[in-house]
Specification:
The chain has 241 residues and is mainly beta. The chain contains three helices and ten strands; from the N terminus they run βββββββαβαββα. A hairpin with a 5-residue loop joins strand 2 and strand 3.
Length: 241
């Protein structure tokens, strides 16, 4: 089988087996690579035998997940001797590599390629929105109204009474002209207005719950294997795909 070598150089991105990015290669040394995570994170040293392979986009993949790599759990992560003394990775060219684009590393005679498969879910999120408003207005209305009020007033009644002619009179008081005024009183009606509470209008809001059916389009990934490009696949292998 023909094989070529991929050189590990600073700047190449490093991913865990869970397809999570650790960082980029900062330095390559004997038996280790130094991965720089960022300005505020410490660098991580990764042994070369923990590297699974390099894909066509020069992304370096590990046997361990990102969390395991950060915890430096290298037990049984890969096969030693994948990388030679010139700090290169042996890249095996197979028909599966042509289908997936990944470089596979042999571990105990088994080729393993991890293909992440994603799908979407629908989640309902409720938020408060305006459904309109109810406007209540008070208007002042003028109307004519009459009331009956009893009033009292004085009236004049003049009665002439005959007296005894033999009653003597004062001659000085007789035969004098003059005016006699008799004051009359009465009641006059004045209108006054007073305000009083005639009632109330109560406005209440009730929360009514209803079921609303919503729908959307979600995506998911399906994996299909082109059997014409895979050699040596068995019926039991097809049942697991």
């Amino acid at each position: 089988m023909d094989s070529n070598h991929v050189e590990l150089v600073p700047g190449m991105d490093v991913y865990g087996s869970d397809n999570e990015k650790l960082g980029s290669i900062d330095d390559v040394q004997d038996g280790f690579i130094t991965v720089k995570q960022g300005f505020f994170s410490s660098d991580v040293s990764i042994p070369l035998d923990a590297i699974e392979g390099v894909d066509r986009e020069d992304r370096v993949f590990l046997y361990a997940s990102k969390d395991a790599a950060l915890r430096e759990e290298w037990t049984n992560v890969g096969a030693a001797g994948m990388v030679d003394d010139n700090v290169t990775l042996e890249q095996t060219t197979t028909t599966q590599q042509a289908a997936t684009g990944f470089t596979d590393a042999a571990v105990s005679g088994t080729d393993a390629t991890r293909v992440p498969v994603y799908e979407e879910d629908l989640t309902a999120v409720k938020r408060q929105v305006s459904r309109g408003a109810v406007r209540i207005e008070k208007n002042v209305v003028t109307e004519d109204r009459t009331i009956s009020v009893p009033v009292t007033e004085e009236q004049v009644r003049v009665t002439r009474v005959d007296v005894d002619a033999s009653t003597p009179v004062n001659a000085a008081d007789a035969f004098q002209e003059g005016v006699i005024e008799v004051q009359l009183t009465g009641e006059e009606v004045e209108l006054q207005k007073t305000a009083h509470l005639a009632g109330e209008v109560v406005v209440e809001k009730d929360a009514v719950q209803r079921n609303e059916t919503v729908g959307g389009t979600v995506r998911r990934e399906e994996v299909h294997v082109d059997e014409d490009t895979v050699q040596g696949i068995t019926d039991s292998d097809r049942s697991r795909i």
